[in-house]
Design goal:
Sulfite Reductase Hemoprotein, domain 1; Alpha-Beta Plaits; 4 iron, 4 sulfur cluster binding; 10 strands; binds iron/sulfur cluster; 4-stranded antiparallel sheet; 3 domains
Length: 279
Amino acid sequence: GVKGFSVYAGGELGSNPAVAVKIEDFVADNEILQVAEAVKRLFDKYGDRSNKHKARLRYVVGRIGAEEFVKLYQSERDEISKQGLKGDIPQLRDIASCFEVSKLNVDDENRRITEGNNILPEKTEGLFTIKLDLNLGDIPANDLVKVGQIAEEFSQGLVTTTQLQNLLITSVPRQNVEKAKSALEGLSIDVFGDDRPKVVTCTGAATCKLGLCLSRGLADAISKNLAKDDKQQSETIIRISGCLNSCGHHYIADIGLQGKAKRVNGVSILKPLMTSGRK
Ligand code: SF4
């Protein structure tokens, strides 16, 4: 098959969250720069760069409507398809070809793998993904190096990050799953979780100038008070953003918390605001 993407534009999780509009059902991966250029030209013509608070595509969608937005995008795209892109066009790196799954031998067909939250079967029979649960996305540098070595030894050598601030070692052949797992158990942190709800957070006011709340501190406090080993809760996702900018993506959580300043009896106070429920 051809590798490619569906493309959405004009969405945002900031102060006025909006769902993105689908602008392409499918584009091949080598056309993606044309798509980016068409969206940029669309914004150059119809967006508002004079006001930084309104300099977002979603305001264009809001002003002209989704249908017109897609039509205008399509005409920019058609123009670019006719003329081609100008200047030096960077080549897209084919990362997958550097980590060939086909070189992995899957054997030991009768071996039973205990699947669970951290051992996930892949579409290709006999290959598994191992998920490493990281607390707030943190991992000591030495452990990260070891994770890379473990991936190199027992899989295709690729480690990917996830939106939930975890790591994935992909394409682990069945016969290597237990070996990789016991090597990971030798890290200085527990990466196999304890069935608590997942807490995801932005950096917060500790290091972010825009932050109103110490979102990582709140995440720690919440995690400590959540029950361990509760299978029913383990799929719950809590997301925290230190301010309305929503870097912690709190609007798409089961429970979302946002740092907010409020004036009470003439005094400014900071308080987390419960914002959403995904389910
Ligand atoms: S949500 Fe706010 S506090 Fe958190 S990283 Fe983004 S800008 Fe900073």
